[in-house]
């Protein structure tokens, strides 16, 4: 039987896929230490050079016995049992050879690689203090080690995701080189005492602030005290269900109808082959409901040209790569925009005269960091920017895609800031009564156009039940997939509890 606690999280929104990589298996570690222990035993029983071999005492015991045979024992049938003389004490005398086997390396190689090449914040024990995964930024180029910090946002490669679980990456303890205590000369005749079984098991009360991980097998000693391990929490069996309730988005006219004063482009990268114009079929279509399809190159707007140089702009997956971009009237020294733009960012071509000219040039260069200016020319685009021909949002001119345009009387944008109702429900085991939140974060990811959006919700000290309502605004793109990832941390009946959930949604126009 489960309790369902319902809360309401109201946010506006967008997108992830955790992976992990762990070190060697427990079985491999055990085999290594078994061999090491055998070598140590052999070295302890071998005689030093120039000395007689030590004698391992042979203890004769009556069979059967209530314990396994020990090193140096022989088992005889009952009739042949021999009682050792009380005047002859049995003393083990192991002699050390002085030559032990090599100790394990001070740092396992996989761990050494992680500690050196993973970003430092990926090692935070608290998952909310760690950087997000690079794949959450939609940056596969950063999902590698050594981490390219100069060209990547603050994120963690997937291979570093479980690094905090390795603790300080210390090796497991070296096996002892000393033999265990010698068995007794004579087995005792007294049976081992038994512990009476209680009529009903007792339930211990976990100490406060025990992480739920202390109840798992092999809990980490750096996170769990002896008291928590002896009496771990029952677990953090809490699931978060978030169901977005998309508002009704108005269908905005996405075709340019009057000469704009500003055009915003997303720098997506790629050569002239990226050029694409989506149009509705037929005459006078309903642009809110029609299915736009790419048109043939023969039907592209008149006067459009695109040419690549020196290999063209960076590839579309080279997110974060810097280029120098200049937009200006064709054949003019007037500048609408000029500066450094990272692949995945946007730039505005703005005129001070109130209207852009009929034709616009966009030049994309390599970024010359030494001179903080343009390097080799990579691409030149020429198109009609006056709207005398059809110009739609999402039109793609080589490496640049139109995402917003503004005229004196209108602003037409691909992006909208809307309020979303996310129904939040907490599902907990029977017996858990209250979740006290001390932290809640939301990441909104978009398949295209938008960078990840992060919000920390003001929930510190809030308790569920009763229902909780939090309002935050996010920018979204209608008719595009978005993913909201919500993470929560708090105390569940006094024990530390963390929960994570994600949902992908699409909010259509109209």
Automatic annotation (TrEMBL):
This is DUF7467 domain-containing protein. InterPro entries: DUF7467. The keyword Metal-binding does not apply. Residues 318-405 form the DUF7467 domain. Residues 96-105, 175-194 have a biased composition (Polar residues). Residues 1-15 form the signal peptide. Residues 67-105, 174-194 are annotated as: Disordered. Keywords: Signal. Pfam families: DUF7467. The keyword Signal applies.
């Amino acid at each position: 039987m489960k309790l369902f606690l319902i809360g309401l999280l109201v946010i506006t929104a967008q997108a992830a896929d955790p992976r992990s990589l762990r070190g060697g298996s427990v079985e491999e570690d055990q085999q290594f230490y078994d061999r090491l222990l055998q070598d140590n035993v052999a070295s302890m029983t071998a005689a030093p050079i120039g000395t007689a071999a030590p004698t391992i005492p042979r203890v004769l015991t009556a069979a059967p016995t209530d314990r396994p045979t020990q090193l140096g024992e022989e088992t005889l049938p009952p009739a042949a049992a021999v009682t050792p003389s009380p005047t002859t004490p049995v003393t083990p005398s192991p002699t050390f050879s002085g030559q032990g086997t090599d100790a394990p390396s001070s740092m396992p190689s996989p761990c050494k690689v992680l500690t050196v090449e993973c970003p430092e914040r990926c090692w935070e024990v608290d998952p909310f203090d760690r950087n997000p995964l690079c794949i959450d930024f939609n940056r596969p180029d950063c999902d590698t080690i050594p981490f390219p910090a100069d060209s990547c946002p603050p994120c963690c490669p997937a291979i570093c995701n479980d690094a905090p679980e390795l603790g300080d990456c210390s090796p497991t303890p070296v096996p002892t080189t000393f033999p265990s205590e010698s068995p007794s000369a004579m087995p005792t005749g007294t049976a081992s005492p038994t512990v009476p079984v209680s009529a009903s098991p007792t339930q211990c009360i976990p100490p406060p602030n025990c992480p739920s991980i202390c109840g798992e097998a092999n809990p980490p000693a750096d996170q769990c005290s002896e008291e928590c391990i002896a009496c771990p929490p029952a677990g953090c069996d809490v699931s978060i269900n978030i169901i977005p309730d998309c508002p009704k988005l108005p269908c905005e006219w996405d075709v340019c109808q009057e000469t704009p004063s500003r055009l915003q482009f997303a720098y997506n990268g790629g050569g002239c082959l990226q050029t694409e114009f989506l149009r509705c079929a037929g005459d006078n279509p309903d642009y809110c409901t029609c299915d736009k399809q790419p048109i043939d190159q023969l039907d592209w707007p008149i006067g459009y040209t695109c040419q690549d140089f020196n290999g063209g702009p960076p590839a579309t997956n080279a997110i974060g790569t810097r280029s120098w971009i200049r937009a200006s009237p064709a054949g003019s020294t007037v500048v609408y925009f000029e500066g450094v733009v990272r692949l995945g960012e946007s730039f505005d071509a703005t005129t001070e005269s109130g209207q852009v000219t009929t034709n616009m040039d966009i030049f994309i260069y390599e970024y010359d960091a030494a001179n903080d200016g343009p390097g080799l020319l990579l691409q030149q685009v020429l198109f009609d920017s006056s709207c005398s021909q059809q110009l739609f949002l999402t039109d793609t001119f080589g490496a640049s895609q139109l995402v917003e345009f503004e005229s004196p009387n209108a602003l037409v944008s691909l992006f909208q800031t809307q309020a979303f109702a996310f129904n939040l429900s907490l599902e907990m085991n029977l017996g858990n009564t209250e979740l006290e939140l001390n932290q809640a974060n939301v990441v909104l990811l978009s398949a295209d156009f938008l960078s990840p959006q992060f919000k920390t919700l003001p929930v510190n000290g809030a308790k569920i039940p009763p229902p909780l309502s939090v309002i935050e605004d996010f920018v979204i793109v209608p008719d595009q997939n978005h993913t909201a990832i919500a993470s929560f941390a708090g105390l569940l009946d006094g024990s530390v509890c963390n929960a994570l959930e994600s949902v992908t949604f699409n909010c259509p126009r109209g």
